[in-house]
Amino acid sequence: MSWGTELWDQFDSLDKHTQWGIDFLERYAKFVKERIEIEQNYAKQLRNLVKKYCPKRSSKDEEPRFTSCIAFFNILNELNDYAGQREVVAEEMAHRVYGELMRYAHDLKTERKMHLQEGRKAQQYLDMCWKQMDNSKKKFERECKEAEKAQQSYERLDNDTNATKADVEKAKQQLNLRTHMADENKNEYAAQLQNFNGEQHKHFYVVIPQIYKQLQEMDERRTIKLSECYRGFADSERKVIPIISKCLEGMILAAKSVDERRDSQMVVDSFKSGFEPPGDFPFEDYSQHIYRTISDGTISASKQESGKMDAKTTVGKAKGKLWLFGKKPKPQSPPLTPTSLFTSSTPNGSQFLTFSIEPVHYCMNEIKTGKPRIPSFRSLKRGWSVKMGPALEDFSHLPPEQRRKKLQQRIDELNRELQKESDQKEALNKMKDVYEKNPQMGDPGSLQPKLAETMNNIDRLRMEIHKNEAWLSEVEGKTGGRGDRRHSSDINHLVTQGRESPEGSYTDDANQEVRGPPQQHGHHNEFDDEFEDDDPLPAIGHCKAIYPFDGHNEGTLAMKEGEVLYIIEEDKGDGWTRARRQNGEEGYVPTSYIDVTLEKNSKGS
């Protein structure tokens, strides 16, 4: 089947059909372009959606911890990868389908135009041959008619007796001329006819079939190209199916990774305070003064014992309790009277004064309503650690359990930084050795400033680690102390609860205070911590600064190398000694930075 033989007379129809084919090709290219735009917009919207719901990790505290949150963020990551695959589909379609279609459509238009021009030229040449043949035919016909007229005129004159001989000869010559011209036109017409027939045969059996064959091949190539583009359109989608399947599998795995038990445990770890639940509200006996009146102000031994245990229990449990929904409202108490003080004895037989619940409430009310006193250095330090930012570096504003976790995290970070600095120091030392062995490679002295800076960083990090470990030990000691007190005897409740450390952290054990003065009596130090007098502590020795200390942190004291200070409180094991200048300025200095000399009569005080 060939267009040249079957459609030899359908030039105009083939012209329209090939134009329709090119228009259809361009229409499909437009379809692919719009599909590419849809894929690009879809991928863009997916990425914007992922960006909208992804967390802005400005700090580590905002990082997702719960398995449900981590699973959701993993799903967002998989969705982002899915959006990337949609972009791959769009790029593949744009390069393999749309671009190829546009290039082929341009080439197809050029080729079609060339073939149609060849066909029109062949048709014009055939028409020209036909016109030449037709002109020769008409001329031959005209000459034949003139020859017939000349023959009729000669015959008429030759039969006419009245005609002269000259007229007959003239008519004969005219007949011979017309006959000769008719013969020449006949030969020309025959030649033109033969030429036209040959050109016509060549046109319809050689030229036009060749042109139509080329048009047919062009149209078939267009159809094949469309088929390839259809296949490429589908392959662009099929190539990304394995990766999209992995993205969907990742979403399923993220959904399976959700662990409700682990999330519940994280809630406990995040919000556990470490405090003990509040105990029973103690019975407060307001009828003691009635019994004293009846017995003329005398108190029996049995009543003293019961009063002692009630007072101790009241002081130990009621003071500083952390209630579930805030602090317990304190009831009104009668004024402090001398009868509210009585003597009690410990199991080892020692005597000391014991306060009932009335004087405690009285003192607390006096503090709230009385004229404020000028705070001492310790109270100022405690207040700074609660209210000001730099003093919260020990996380004393947090509950014990949360404080322990934060300190442990900081210690881990400091250890990592210390390891980096140590590695850098080792690398610098190796480089220095190489420079010393090969001076042409570099100057060993140029590394000295960097080594000094690294050593300073290492010393600073070690000091920070030591300080944070001391705070961590303090918190862990308090936590352990609370666990031991749960199973202790009732006599252990004599120790006052609800203490605050000098840094402002909450503690239940009065013996856990790190930077306070040595404690002699539990009850006396209880009131000494709450109602500290303004008299400065006596100097127990002096010290000389070996190294300079900047003292940027709150509660610390800056000093210069060689400066002499008074010692007013020894190192309690946390690496800090409390000192005072001659002008009365007090603060803590690193013990390793000073040379301490204590007075003999003051050691152990």
UniProtKB/TrEMBL annotation:
SMART domains linked to this entry: FCH (SM00055), SH3 (SM00326)
Protein encoded by which gene: FNBP1L
Residue stretches in coiled coil: 130-174, 404-438
Every SH3 domain range: 538-599
Gene Ontology biological-process entries: autophagy; endocytosis; signal transduction
Membrane topology: Peripheral membrane protein
Name recorded for this polypeptide: Formin-binding protein 1-like
Gene3D superfamilies linked to this entry: 6.10.140.470, Arfaptin homology (AH) domain/BAR domain, SH3 Domains
Biased composition (Acidic residues): 527-536
InterPro entries noted in UniProt: AH/BAR_dom_sf, F_BAR_dom, FCH_dom, FNBP1L_F-BAR, FNBP1L_SH3, HR1_CIP4_FNBP1L, HR1_rho-bd, HR1_TOCA
Compositionally biased region (Basic and acidic residues): 476-490
Species this protein is from: Leptonychotes weddellii (Weddell seal)
Cellular compartments annotated: Cell membrane; Cytoplasm, Cell cortex; Cytoplasm, Cytoskeleton; Cytoplasmic vesicle
Domain F-BAR intervals: 1-263
Keyword NAD: no
Gene Ontology molecular function: any one: lipid binding
